[in-house]
Structure formats: C-alpha cells, structure tokens
C-alpha cells in the first residue's frame, strides 16, 4: 500500500541529496566513513519519505545523537528536521497494559492453586516467551522502547515495509552504479569514438 | 410506584405497548423498535425471571442508557419514563453486584473510539469490539442520541459474551488480545512465508528475523555502494535517469541536483525489478554527457515494454549508449 513508486522516488531523491551533502562520493573518506555516510543518508531519507511516524522520529533522534551527523541531517531534512525530532515526549513506558497483565497473572496464579495447574502454566509460559520477543522487537524498531504492545506492532509493520522499500531502491541504485562503472570501463577501452550499439537484451 | 404490585405493572406495560405503537408512527422506526424492544424485553424478563447473570446486568445498563436517551429524544414520553425507570432501578439493585464492575469496565479509559451503545444491545451475542466500526455506520440514528448523552465518552463498550466472565479485567484482556491478533494478521501478510505459523511467539520470531534481515541488507547494500561509489563517482550520480517500474505512476519527472558537474556520462536506465545486471557489452546504455548540468529527469515507466528515454541537453561525448536492463 505504501510501496509506491512515488514513495521510492522521494526516498531516492533524498538519499542522493544526502550523498551530496555528506560528500559520500569523494575519495577523501575512508571506506567505513563512506559507508556510514551512505547509511546515514539512506536512513534519513527513508524517515523523511515516510513522514511522521513513531519509528521515523525515533530514527532521526538516534541519528542526531552523533554531533557530526546533526549538521548533515539539518541541511538534508530542512524543515522536516524539527518535525521529526521526536516531539512526543512519552518516553515513559505505558503501564496500562502491564498492570492488566500483572493482575491477570496474579489471578492465574491464584487459579493455579485451585488445581488447574497445567493449563495456566502453559499460558504463563507463552506469555513469558512473547514478552521476551517483544523486548527484542523493541530494541530493533527505532524508538520502540516507549511504545506499548499495540503500537509496537503497528510500528513494526510500518517499519518493515519502509525497510523493504529502502532495500529495493538501494539495490537498484547499486545495479545502476555498477552498470555505469562498467560503461565507464568500456568507454575507456573503446576510446576514440566507437559506437557501442551492441544489440540484445540482458 | 413500587407499591403498585404486579397488576399495576402489567397494566402499565400494556399502556407502554400502546404508547409505543402511537409513538412509532411519529419517530423513525428503527430507533424506537430497538429501544422499545429492549425495554419491553427487559420488562418481560423482569417478570419471568428475576435475575440472570451477565446478560441481565448488561441488558439492564444498556436499557437504562438507551431509555434515558430515548426519553431525551422524545419529550412527550418523559412523564412516563419515571415509573418504568423505577423498574430498572429495582433490576439494577437486584443485579447490583455485576453493575459496578460493568460501570468500572466502562469507565476504565480503554481507548480511542466512541461507540454507540443503543444499537449494540440488539446484537448481544456477537463478538464485540471488532464489529464496532461496522456497526457505527449502521447505528447512525441512535448515535445522535448517544452523543448527546455522553459527549465525552471515550470508551470502548465491550459486551461480555454469554457464559463468560464480566470481569473488567478479562474484558480488557479480551479486547487487547483481539487487537493484537488483528495486527498479527497484517504482519502475517507482510512477512513472507508466515502464513503457516500460528501462535504469537512464533510469529514474533519471524517478524524479528525479518526485520533483522532487512536491516542487515541495508547495511550490506550501503557497504557495497561505498565500495562501488568512488570509482563510479564521476558518472554515477551526475545524471541518472532511472525508471522504477514498480507501478505506473502519473508523476513523470523529478529533478535533482547532480553530484558533480562533470563532463561525463549520465545514464538512461530502465530497470526491471526482476532482472539482474549482466555487465557486459551486450547491452544498450545511453549516456549523455553533460558539462554543467543541474537537471536530471526521472522518468517512470514499465521497464519491460518499449520505453521513451530522455536525452539530455547537450551531448558532448560522441558515444551514445543505451542501456536496458
């Protein structure tokens, strides 16, 4: 639904702008610096393209923690930078669902004493497993710590789709640049005005 | 009124029925039929069986609510609302142990939707919260009454199913569980190969793996771009025209700044999502070299079919290669 061409284009455009701004294409950087700059541009671009969601705000916040990146982000995102800089200050975990869960667990343990041990044990075990995984998911999704169960799943969905689009566009960009590299090589060989009109599809 | 006894109540009910018939001709049928049906049903129940469990409690509260809004809507019946309300009060007292908990469930700030209670009473035995949204449209008539009554109500009104606990905790739990399962379904559609897996933990596992793998792919691709980049830096981004053929879009062009004003090749490439690049001479590449260009045009289109390509202003290089991937 959101993986439209326009979304991908916006992302690509922003990413290339980011490459420009962070000077990723120059030879002056080391490999790792270049890679980090590219990744920064890609992340900022996807957050920009997506608009204002919890994960995009969390992403920008995480990226801005590094001072060096701040300037780049500011110029890249422009107006959007302030919007995306996590205005929602609910870094407190929402305790509501936890309270209910705890009460339920308490009641479950009470019922367990009444003798329905096995059934309740399983549910408690399942809940513990799910809880562990939710914690892992919270670390994965940017800005995920301050979300509760429902919104976390929503944001995960959104984030996964955007990641998919990001991977798609970056892969194509890679293809393109590889191809251009090859063309350059071919040009270097065939210098002197040869016309490469080789036929055939790929 | 309580001192009237059964006879009095019977007579009153007959009167109420007559009143209903009269009023039904004056008001929208659907409203009255629901509310009146509820009320009469409740009265009948009161006579037959003094107390049942959750059903009664719910119905009692629902009827109270509906009846008050009914009476607000039709003032000529207001005078008659009092005695009938007293019946409700008795019933309320009778099932009082359920009521406070019900009220507590209602008042627990569950969340984000206004629901119309009146219509819901009609459909007691169906599942509750998931059909809220559907019924919201259907209950447009009664919702107006409801909104006057509870303009600030922000609760999800959950109906306890027959034979299940009316505990506020379990109700809230059930709502929560249903929401989670709904979202799990969406995620199942998203994550490839997940349709066979049931159960929350397994699904969460898959989701975690998927997100992790996507993140790793981004890292890997950025690394590869960094490797490719400096070598192709001059001609890489200076003029790219890429067709992204995911969907046909009406947005034809996009301009962005070129990386370097370099007298070198730009590319017209039309990329197909499925194909892989085979970098050899058996391909067309169109490069138009630009000296100081700041315009690049994107064109969207399907990669496979015949493509109109863009040639830019000023071909400086003699080589014109067209590439079609």
How would you briefly describe this protein structure?
The complex is a heterodimer of chains A (202) and B (325). Chain A is mainly alpha-helical.
Mind sketching the topology for me?
The complex is a heterodimer of chains A (202) and B (325).
Chain A: H1 5-21, H2 31-50, H3 54-64, H4 67-77, H5 80-83, H6 96-113, H7 117-140, H8 149-189
Helix pairs in contact in A: 1-2, 1-4, 1-8, 2-3, 2-4, 2-8, 6-7
Chain B: H1 5-24, H2 29-48, H3 54-73, H4 78-94, H5 98-107, H6 117-122, H7 132-138, H8 140-149, H9 168-190, H10 200-228, H11 233-236, E1 240-244, E2 267-271, E3 323-324
Parallel strand pairs in B: 1-2, 2-3
Helix pairs in contact in B: 1-2, 2-3, 3-4, 3-8, 5-9
Notable traits:
heterodimer; A: 202 residues; mainly alpha; B: 325 residues; three-stranded parallel β-sheet; 3 strands
* CA(first)-CA(last) distance of chain A: 30 Å
Task: Tell me the overall shape of chain A.
Answer: elongated
Share in β-strands of chain B: under 5%
Can you summarize the main beta sheet of chain B?
3 strands, parallel
Describe the structure.
The complex is a heterodimer of chains A (202) and B (325). In chain A, 72% of the residues lie in helices and 0% in strands. Chain A contains eight helices and no strands. In chain A, α1 runs antiparallel to α2. The model of chain A has no long low-confidence stretch (mean pLDDT 77). With 325 residues, chain B is mainly α. Chain B is built from eleven helices and three strands, in the order αααααααααααβββ. The longest helix of chain B is centred in the middle third of the chain and has 29 residues. The C terminus of chain B is likely disordered. The chains are: A mainly alpha (202), B mainly alpha (325).
């Amino acid at each position: 639904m959101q993986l439209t061409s326009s979304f991908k284009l916006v992302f690509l455009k922003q990413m290339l702008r980011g490459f420009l701004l962070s000077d990723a294409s120059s030879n002056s950087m080391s490999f790792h610096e270049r890679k980090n700059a590219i990744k920064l541009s890609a992340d900022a671009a996807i957050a920009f393209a997506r608009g204002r969601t919890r994960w995009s705000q969390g992403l920008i916040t995480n990226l801005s923690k590094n001072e060096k990146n701040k300037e780049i982000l500011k110029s890249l995102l422009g107006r959007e930078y302030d919007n995306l800089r996590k205005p929602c200050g609910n870094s407190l975990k929402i305790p509501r669902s936890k309270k209910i869960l705890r009460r339920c667990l308490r009641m479950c343990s009470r019922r367990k004493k009444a003798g329905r041990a096995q059934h309740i044990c399983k549910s408690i075990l399942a809940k513990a497993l799910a809880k562990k995984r939710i914690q892992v998911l919270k670390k994965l999704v940017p800005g995920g710590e301050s979300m509760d169960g429902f919104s976390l799943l929503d944001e995960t969905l959104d984030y996964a789709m955007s990641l998919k689009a990001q991977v798609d566009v970056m892969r194509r960009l890679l293809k393109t640049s590889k191809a251009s590299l090859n063309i350059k090589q071919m040009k270097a060989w065939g210098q002197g005005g040869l016309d490469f009109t080789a036929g055939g599809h790929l | 009124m309580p001192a009237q006894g059964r006879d009095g109540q019977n007579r009153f009910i007959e009167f109420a029925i007559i009143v209903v018939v009269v009023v039904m001709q004056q008001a929208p049928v659907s409203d009255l039929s629901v509310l009146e049906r509820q009320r009469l049903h409740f009265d009948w129940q009161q006579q037959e069986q003094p107390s049942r469990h959750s059903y009664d409690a719910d119905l009692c509260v629902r009827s109270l609510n509906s009846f008050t809004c009914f009476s607000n809507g039709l003032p000529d019946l207001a005078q008659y609302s009092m005695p009938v309300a007293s019946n409700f009060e008795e019933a309320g007292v009778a099932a009082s142990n359920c009521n406070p908990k019900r009220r507590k469930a209602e008042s627990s700030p569950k969340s984000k939707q206004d629901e119309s209670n009146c219509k819901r009473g009609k459909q007691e035995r169906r599942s509750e919260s998931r059909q809220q949204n559907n019924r919201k449209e259907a209950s447009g008539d009664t919702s107006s009454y409801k909104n006057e009554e509870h303009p600030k109500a922000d609760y999800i009104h959950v109906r306890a199913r027959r034979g299940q606990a009316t505990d506020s905790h379990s109700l809230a739990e059930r709502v929560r569980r249903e929401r989670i399962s709904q979202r799990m379904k969406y995620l199942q559609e998203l994550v490839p190969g997940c349709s066979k897996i049931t159960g929350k933990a397994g699904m969460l596992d898959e989701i975690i793996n998927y997100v992790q793998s996507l993140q790793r792919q981004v890292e890997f691709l950025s690394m590869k771009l960094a490797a490719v980049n400096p070598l192709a830096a001059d001609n890489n981004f200076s003029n790219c025209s890429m067709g992204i053929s995911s969907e046909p879009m009406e947005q034809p062009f996009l301009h962005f700044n070129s990386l370097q004003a370099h007298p070198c090749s730009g590319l017209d490439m039309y990329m197909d999502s499925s194909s892989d690049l085979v970098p050899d001479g058996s391909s067309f590449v169109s490069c138009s070299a630009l000296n100081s260009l700041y315009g690049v045009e994107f064109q969207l289109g399907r990669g496979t079919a015949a493509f109109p390509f863009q040639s830019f202003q000023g071909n400086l290089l003699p080589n014109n290669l067209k590439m079609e991937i």
